[in-house]
Amino acid sequence: MPPSDPPDDAERVIRAEKAAVSRALNLVEDKRADAQDRVAALLGSLKGAPRAVGGHRVGLTGPPGVGKSTLTSAIARAVRARGRTMGIVAVDPSSIVSGGSLLGDRVRMSFDPSDEGLFVRSLATAGEVGGLAYAANSAVRVLAAAYDVVVIETTGVGQSEIDIVHVADTVVLVIQPGSGDVLQFLKAGIMEIPDILVVNKADQEELARRAVADLQGALRTAHAVGASGREDGDWETPIIATSATEGTGIEELIDALDAHRKHLEPTLGARRAQGEVQWVLDLFMRKHGDHGVSTLHGLAELTARAERELDEGETPLSLCERLSGEYVATLRQTS
Ligand SMILES: Nc1nc2c(ncn2[C@@H]2O[C@H](COP(=O)(O)OP(=O)(O)OP(=O)(O)O)[C@@H](O)[C@H]2O)c(=O)[nH]1
Ligand SMILES: [Mg+2]
């Protein structure tokens, strides 16, 4: 079947037609240059969609096995029960794509496939840095045009390969009772303070109570040593105990998500724009380091340029590629 025009596809995505959303995500994962040109065009048409502007992008992250996927399923049920639609993209570091199928898929979620208001997709990392970050970013923006709430699940703590901070309005860090690393990271200021902290597996009640108390202490220490989140100081990170398997604490979590989204409203546009700029700069610097930045006239110039060109409709993907091209061309000229 020949591909339909991007505007056509965009309309269908905005109407949340599952087949169109699926097709758009296939395109996002297709690394060929012509596919990526079409992604850029598609994202351009999706950018102003009502849900893309008014919706909520939630990043859910945490160490392996803490229950992120189970929690995401529980969140989805609660969000749907409140009459809102939801798209999920799970970034699965353990999966590999082979012959078009996803092997070793650890995304353990079960949903009603006939529910038109819920869409789930996992992206396999297949061990490549950078490429997935692009795909995840684009995937979130496709889903954001179609669904009220988008959740992106990634595994990791601290500086992970997929920096969901750049793509999520709200970052939720999920841990389980007895996970000392997170406490240490928070205390030492290695980790940015998340917008919401969740202690899952709180069916282990005594352990969970202690974990919540420890986290409260760690947050106080983190604030004391000057570690920061993305807030200007007037948002206090709530700590919420949940049991994803028993369904407790989920309503409280959704309320906290809504409260954070509301808190962000006045600055959301700027925050999202800043996230995209940061994403481009990060990727470019990971690839080409300080030398790349100085060759393209320094950080201030590069930042201003990214702001301007993203604002004009360029996608982070295409912009980063073009900057890389310019850097390489300059190297050739001067060598
Ligand atoms: N007791 C208890 N077990 C849970 C809870 N939530 C998840 N689990 C169990 O923890 C295990 C891991 O759950 P997942 O949801 O796959 O965890 P994850 O964080 O998504 O794991 P990765 O994506 O592999 O990092 C499964 O056996 C779940 O049944 C909970 O609230 N209480
Ligand atoms: Mg998972």
Any chance you could write out the topology, listing elements then pairs?
Elements lengths: L5 H9 L3 H12 L3 H14 L3 H5 L1 E7 L5 H14 L4 E7 L3 E3 L2 E3 L14 E7 L6 H16 L2 E7 L14 E6 L4 H9 L7 E4 L5 H20 L14 E3 L8 H15 L3 H28 L2 H14 L4 H19 L1
Parallel strand pairs: 1-6, 1-7, 2-5, 2-6, 7-8, 8-9
Antiparallel strand pairs: 3-4
Helix pairs in contact: 1-2, 1-3, 2-6, 3-6, 5-9, 7-8, 10-11, 10-12
Guanosine-5'-triphosphate binds next to helix 5.
Can you describe this structure?
- The chain has helices spanning 6-14, 18-29, 33-46, 50-54, 68-81, 131-146, 180-188, 205-224, 250-264, 268-295, 298-311, 316-334, and strands at 56-62, 86-92, 96-98, 101-103, 118-124, 149-155, 170-175, 196-199, 239-241.
- It has 335 residues and is of the alpha/beta class.
- The protein folds into 2 domains: 53-264, Rossmann fold (3-Layer(aba) Sandwich), CATH 3.40.50.300; 271-334, no CATH class.
- The chain has a 7-stranded parallel beta sheet with strand order 5-2-6-1-7-8-9, with helices on both faces. Strands 3-4 form a two-stranded antiparallel sheet.
- A hairpin with a 2-residue loop joins strand 3 (96-98) and strand 4 (101-103).
- Helix 2 packs antiparallel against helix 6 (131-146), helix 5 packs across helix 9 and helix 10 (268-295) runs parallel beside helix 12 (316-334).
- The protein starts with 5 loop residues before the first helix and ends with a helix.
- Guanosine-5'-triphosphate binds next to helix 5.
- Magnesium ion is lined by residues 68-69, 106-107, 153.
